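=== RUN LOG ===
request id: a7f3
mode: sequence -> structure
chains: 1
length: 505
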Amino acid sequence: AHVCNNMVLQRIQVNAPDAGSGLVPLAGTTGIRMHNAARICLVDCNVEVVETAFEEYSQSSGGTAGACVGNSYIGCISHNCTTAYKDSNALHTRSAIQRTFVGCDNLGPVPVGRISGDGARAQDGDAFLPGAWITDPDGLPAVQFRAPTRDSLFLTGDYKGALQVDGDGHPRQLAPYHGLKFDLGSMQSARITRSVASGAAHPDSSGQILEDVRLELGNGPADPAGELARVQVNDPLMLVSRSSQPSRPVDGLVHHAAAASALPATGEWYLGPGLYARINNGEYPPVAVQRGAVAEREQNGDLTISSSDFGKVIRVNHASDRTVTVPPGLVAGGSGARRVWVVRQGTGRVSVAAGPGVNLRSAGGERSIARQYQMVELLICGNNDVYISHILPDAIEPYEERLHWTAGNVVVPQSYLGKLVRVSNGGPDPVHVTIPQGLVPTGMEAVSLRVVKVGSADVEIRAGAGMNLASPGGDPHVISQVNKVVTLIVSGMSSSQPDTVYIDD
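=== RESULT ===
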């Protein structure tokens, strides 16, 4: 019998055993065959002991007119048949489509069974649906499940933007705006992705794009349901390496940079392949990189330290003197300290200067990097104290002399110790060089410096309050001869003759 479209076939029973009885099907028999039939609803049809229980056949490929489309099987049964279901898709692509199987026994578009080894690919009773909608409590469409391709699933909803040709639930919509895509096409991995990405055209506003398409896990502190204890990953977490920057850089991102192009071009952030985090509106400190890696850059002019220099080695390279200034307020109170390293790469002297309210702390009050290729460390604290480490060379040549130039009256600071202090003044009055009490650092018995007169004004060596001057020429000791060098040895408070200035003239 032939059937036309849009029919209901209900409680049809077909049985064709070989020789009229038994469980061996008669060769070449088919229970129910639908040829170019569409929208047939088969209800409680029972086909037993035939070669092919149910068949859909058409030569109309691609779902065109004449194809078997939208046929439904509800509670149908196939028992003791060689083939439970057969279609023409292998011969004519998509000639039998959009089939539905619900509550069937031993029947489906793939082999069905329940016993291991029976060749089944689906469980007996499984439903096969072109798609499925779950409604809200009022019965309105809420969530849709559908498979856009083999081994993939869309979870989407009833949404259609003003500029969308096809809504999210439309079978031709391969990029629903409200949706998740599950990709099961690999034996070793499964993917959960969004069905659209950043840069997609906005579905409601012409000329705009979506800028922050993302996946979210967990509740977070603002969720009405409350915050989760954690999002737990029970196996090692891998971040795939990338050679480009994240398309939506926001603070809190962590990514695996395989090349410098994965980080901003300025800032000297890249320290080799590794994990980097974005914080503080654009900083990219390393989270995990090769051991010992440190950022560095070359500076040719004077430099004012900024927060972007924290953790870096700055190589100051010039033949002329250069100044590195530390401004106030670089580090917020209560947030620890920050480290910066400065190398005198060039032949010009490099000095550290304090901005307003900044206190430089260094051995002997020294502020200048004396040796080429010498490196000092700046430890910048939240109270605007800056500690300068290694400002004194670890070793000096026995013939090396450190110099200082002054023109006016001076109370000698610890930074002058060990140096030749050149006093140059062409005025009529003598220049006073005063040695204060407490000049000798704690733990030292005595220190020395030398003074030379290089101008026309005389130089008077004087003892400050609490100090004694032991001089062959009396107090003060006067240097009247141009280019005369005098050595001063100052004893500390713990020596047997404390707080004394000895003159070697």
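=== NOTES ===
Residues 402-504 form a domain with the Jelly Rolls fold (CATH 2.60.120.640).
The mean pLDDT is 94.
=== END ===
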